[in-house]
Amino acid sequence: MLVVLEAKNLTKRYGEVTAVDNVSLTVEKGALFGLLGPNGSGKTTMIKMLTGQTRPDSGSAAVLGLDVVQDPVGARGQVGIIPEQETPPSFLTAMEYLEFVAAVRKIPDIETKADWWFDFLDFADKKNVLCKDLSRGTRQKLMFTQAFIHEPALALIDEPLINFDPIMQDLVKDYLAGYVKKGKTIFISTHILEVAEEICSGFAILHKGKLLHAGPVAELTSRNEHLPSFFLSLVRKDRHV
User: Fold this and answer.
1) Residue of 20, 2, 18 lying closest to 204 (CA atoms)
2) What percent of the chain stands above pLDDT 70?
3) Least enclosed by CB within 10 Å: which of 13, 27, 29, 108?
4) Alpha helices (runs of H) in 51-93, residue ranges in sequence order
C-alpha cells in the first residue's frame, strides 16, 4: 500500500518539557487513522509538526511525498487541515472566508461548492454572517468545510467532532467514513475513544509525548478487546513505569 503520511523520530521540546518524544509512525492511503491520547499527551503538537505549522527539534515528516520540514507551505497546500481551535477570520463573512480559501487553493466554481456545504452542514442561513458573530459550532462547520472543499487526498483534523451536537456528529462521522472509501486518507487526533473505535481503521496511542502503541483496530477486535479498555490499560501502566 502507498504510504501518504510518515513521521520518523519526531521530537519537539518546549523548554524543559518534551511534548513529543522520538515518535515514528506511518499511515497508508485509504486509512482513517486516529492519534489517541489524554489531554497534554502531544497530539496537537504532532498535528502541527505534520502540517508544517511547528518545526520539530529533530526527526522528519512527510505528507503525500512532501517533506513538511523543508517545504511546509507546499505540504499545507496539498492537504486539508482543521486545527484544534476554530479560527476563521473575524472580519470576513462565512462566504467571504470560503472565497478566500478558494483563491489561495485555486478552487474553481466556489459558489456551487460552497452552497453544497452550506446545505450539507445546515448553516446556509449563516452564509453572509461575519465569522466573529458565528456560534462555536457554526465556526466548526465552516472550518470543516474549508478543510474538505478542495477534496484533498489527505486531511489532518484535530478533534473533528468538538463543538458539534449529536446529530451533526453522526452526519460528520458518516461523511468521514464515506470519504476514505473513495481512496482518500484522514488522520485525526482525539481523546474520544468510543468515536475512534467506531470510525478508525488504525490508531496510535500517545502518552506524555511517547508512542505507546500503533496498529489496526481490527487487531483488537480479533482478540475481543475494546479500544477504550486497551487504551486505559496502556496509559495506566505507563503512569507507573
Assistant:
1) 20
2) 98
3) 108
4) 72-78
Q: Distance between CA 176 and CA 28 in Å, rounded?
A: 16
C-alpha cell at 147: 478543510
Residue 32 in contact with residue 26, Cβ under 8 Å?
A: no
Q: Which of 229, 61, 235 is nearest to 156 (CA)?
A: 61
Distance CA 225, CA 218 (A): 10
The structural domains of the chain, ordered by start, are: 29-79+153-189+198-241 (3.40.50.300), 87-151 (no CATH)
Using alpha carbons, select from 81, 63, 51 the residue that is nearest to residue 144.
Answer: 81
Residue located via cell numbers 489527505: 154
Q: What is the pLDDT of residues 90-120, one digit of tens each?
A: 899 999 999 999 999 999 999 999 999 999 9
- Chain centroid to Cα 56, Å, comes to 18
pLDDT band at 86 (very low <50, low <70, confident <90, very high): low
Could you give the CA distance from residue 39 to residue 50 in angstroms, rounded to a whole number?
A: 19
- In angstroms, the CA 60 to CA 202 distance is 21
The DSSP H or E segment spanning 21 is strand 17-28
The model's confidence at residue 168, banded by pLDDT at 50, 70 and 90, is: very high
Rounded-to-integer distance, Cα 168 and Cα 157, Å = 16
Which ranges constitute the DSSP H helices of 70-203?
A: 72-78, 94-105, 110-120, 136-148, 166-181, 193-199
Amino acid letter, residue 30: G
| Spatial distance between the Cα atoms of 200 and 86, rounded to a whole number of angstroms | 23
Q: How does DSSP classify residue 3?
A: E
pTM (predicted TM-score)? 0.93
